[in-house]
Amino acid sequence: AASDVYKRQLETCQQPQRNVDLFSQLFRRPINNDLLTLAVGETQAHLNYLISKNKLQRIPDHQDVVWYQTL
């Protein structure tokens, strides 16, 4: 269920994670270049939902890589 995925993402994000670090929680198969854009978009939708619920924060680093961490 979606709520289980969100719970796993929040647990994993106790330590900062990038969008691509969370693929394995959403997708059962490896993500190749043909699916990369779709995978990033779907993962970002999950992250944006958790941010909107004040459960997750977005942290850009000095190289503008965005990390996500549980609040």
Taken in chain order, the helices and strands follow as HHHEE
Radius of gyration: 12 Å
Q: Strand portion, in percent?
A: 5-15%
Write down the overall mean pLDDT: 93
So what's the overall shape?
Answer: globular
Separation of the first and last Cα atoms: 22 Å
DSSP helix fraction = 40-55%
SS-derived structural category: alpha+beta
Tally of helical segments: 3
Number of strands: 2
Low-confidence stretches: none
Structure in words:
This protein has helices at residues 2-12, 23-26, 36-52; strands spanning 56-60, 66-70. It is an alpha+beta fold. The protein has a two-stranded antiparallel ribbon. A hairpin with a 5-residue loop joins strand 1 (56-60) and strand 2. The chain is globular. The model has no long low-confidence stretch (mean pLDDT 93).
